[in-house]
């Protein structure tokens, strides 16, 4: 058999297998159940469902993400600069922090901050239970972003620092004026990725008790599981999934575009 | 005799076990143009970088206008702001426009007003033949243009002396001339200059003194036309026979 004939044959078989699998899936699926369970019109066409999902859930998801990202980035910047400090103890502290929180499940930290700390110290972080959960997201997110920022800072060529210092700029001035602006440009794509991860991680807050007005998308959707127009079906969860994708897919596309552009300008 | 612009005494520098400077003594007088030549790895760039302490020497002394720059009490940033430095790789700030490259240190280090630093920047851009490029970003300039901007950036600090670290080595051959012309103008205006270079023509034409380095020591120094035309030392002869 000729090499090209054999290659066409192999490809034909692969396509046939795929087509057979899809056909089996379509035939085996219970389309009636899928429609009533996941796409109940009482949910998809009703503002009673979309209203709370969007005006409460999506709104809070976005607010929580922005808060956790902003404070996380601030803490991450401090950690990254500590990690690059000439003073040993600063480096060690930052390393311990980063390794500690990168090695823990975010869920565990959230529960610890929301329940463990208040019970241990009779003290609740500002913002109550939600505040405690957000604080946990900040602490965990900062550990990841600190590594990203450190890599970005180190990716700025050494000649940039040398040029700034030779002009008489102090070390701090050089960092602020010359190094950090370039480092941030380098880390915009990975930081956007961290942002997307945070959007999804806010769903973990649903394990802590939240007031009705504080709930984010996943918690709102879970409530509709037990009460509301689509109670007893998973419709609200599928709606929530659609909301997440509407937010996250444009962002991941943005990251891909930024990365392509960055490669071009190098 | 007045204080030399740069005085180097018994300078030693090692990278790990590799000693790249093995006791350097030399000086640059005010208004003098000193060119340093030598094979790669001879320590000439390291010597230049030790003078504004971008490289930390192991022992010895560097006096800039009489000020000991290894003294912990010396305000190093202040000394550096009086020494213009031009790098092989230009090292312009890519996130700033050409004008901002020239004004940022004037404002942040010299404390000049925005208006004054812009005026000085424009004058220096004009001097290097790049008027009208104020708002361009360095990435859109040719290597030769970038190096001229880098020279203008250093000049905008009104330095007392200029250090050049192989300023034309990263340039395409047809762009070297423009950069050398700017340097010749500077020399003719009486700027104190120390130039690490492979441009023998420039050294011969513009240099007041030529220093030949090899293996971490100064092998020979003197009038450029003398050293290039009639080298005394065998190592100098061997090097020149390869590059001339």
Automatic annotation (TrEMBL), chain A:
<keyword id="KW-0472">Membrane</keyword>
<keyword id="KW-0812">Transmembrane</keyword>
<dbReference type="InterPro" id="IPR043429">
    <property type="entry name" value="ArtM/GltK/GlnP/TcyL/YhdX-like"/>
</dbReference>
<dbReference type="InterPro" id="IPR000515">
    <property type="entry name" value="MetI-like"/>
</dbReference>
<feature type="transmembrane region" description="Helical">
    <location>
        <begin position="103"/>
        <end position="121"/>
    </location>
</feature>
<feature type="transmembrane region" description="Helical">
    <location>
        <begin position="237"/>
        <end position="258"/>
    </location>
</feature>
<keyword id="KW-0029">Amino-acid transport</keyword>
<keyword id="KW-1003">Cell membrane</keyword>
<feature type="transmembrane region" description="Helical">
    <location>
        <begin position="62"/>
        <end position="82"/>
    </location>
</feature>
<dbReference type="GO" id="GO:0043190">
    <property type="term" value="C:ATP-binding cassette (ABC) transporter complex"/>
</dbReference>
<keyword id="KW-0813">Transport</keyword>
<dbReference type="GO" id="GO:0022857">
    <property type="term" value="F:transmembrane transporter activity"/>
</dbReference>
<dbReference type="GO" id="GO:0006865">
    <property type="term" value="P:amino acid transport"/>
</dbReference>
<comment type="similarity">
    <text>Belongs to the binding-protein-dependent transport system permease family.</text>
</comment>
<dbReference type="InterPro" id="IPR035906">
    <property type="entry name" value="MetI-like_sf"/>
</dbReference>
<dbReference type="Pfam" id="PF00528">
    <property type="entry name" value="BPD_transp_1"/>
</dbReference>
<protein>
    <submittedName>
        <fullName>ABC transporter permease</fullName>
    </submittedName>
</protein>
<dbReference type="InterPro" id="IPR010065">
    <property type="entry name" value="AA_ABC_transptr_permease_3TM"/>
</dbReference>
<feature type="domain" description="ABC transmembrane type-1">
    <location>
        <begin position="58"/>
        <end position="256"/>
    </location>
</feature>
<keyword id="KW-1133">Transmembrane helix</keyword>
TrEMBL record, chain B:
<protein>
    <recommendedName>
        <fullName>ABC-type polar-amino-acid transporter</fullName>
        <ecNumber>7.4.2.1</ecNumber>
    </recommendedName>
</protein>
<dbReference type="GO" id="GO:0015426">
    <property type="term" value="F:ATPase-coupled polar amino acid-transporter activity"/>
</dbReference>
<dbReference type="InterPro" id="IPR030679">
    <property type="entry name" value="ABC_ATPase_HisP-typ"/>
</dbReference>
<keyword id="KW-0813">Transport</keyword>
<keyword id="KW-0029">Amino-acid transport</keyword>
<dbReference type="InterPro" id="IPR050086">
    <property type="entry name" value="MetN_ABC_transporter-like"/>
</dbReference>
<dbReference type="InterPro" id="IPR027417">
    <property type="entry name" value="P-loop_NTPase"/>
</dbReference>
<dbReference type="InterPro" id="IPR003593">
    <property type="entry name" value="AAA+_ATPase"/>
</dbReference>
<keyword id="KW-0472">Membrane</keyword>
<dbReference type="GO" id="GO:0005886">
    <property type="term" value="C:plasma membrane"/>
</dbReference>
<keyword id="KW-1003">Cell membrane</keyword>
<keyword id="KW-0067">ATP-binding</keyword>
<dbReference type="GO" id="GO:0016887">
    <property type="term" value="F:ATP hydrolysis activity"/>
</dbReference>
<keyword id="KW-0547">Nucleotide-binding</keyword>
<dbReference type="InterPro" id="IPR003439">
    <property type="entry name" value="ABC_transporter-like_ATP-bd"/>
</dbReference>
<dbReference type="GO" id="GO:0005524">
    <property type="term" value="F:ATP binding"/>
</dbReference>
<comment type="similarity">
    <text>Belongs to the ABC transporter superfamily.</text>
</comment>
<dbReference type="InterPro" id="IPR017871">
    <property type="entry name" value="ABC_transporter-like_CS"/>
</dbReference>
<feature type="domain" description="ABC transporter">
    <location>
        <begin position="6"/>
        <end position="240"/>
    </location>
</feature>
<dbReference type="Pfam" id="PF00005">
    <property type="entry name" value="ABC_tran"/>
</dbReference>
